[in-house]
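ok so for the tutorial part 2 we go from a plain amino acid sequence to predicted structure tokens. step 1 is just haveing the sequence, like this:
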Amino acid sequence: MIRFKIDILAALKKAGYTQTVLQREILSKSVVQSLKDGGNITLDTLNKVCCLAGLQPGDILEYVEVPEEKEKIIQNYL
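step 2 — the prediction. this is what the tokens look like for a chain of 78 residues:
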């Protein structure tokens, strides 16, 4: 499972972007909510976050092995 390893909104705030500014000018309200909830984001959104916060994708995301997930993926190919 890929998940956020940092609080993205906190990193963006540290870089000078409040939630209000993000929602009004850069990202949609639903994307900001996904960032807040740790939900799914697109590569375009990840690119924007990296650009604005001065981070690399590896600074933001991590892979955590979930055995059930691997089994499910393998079963889909059998």
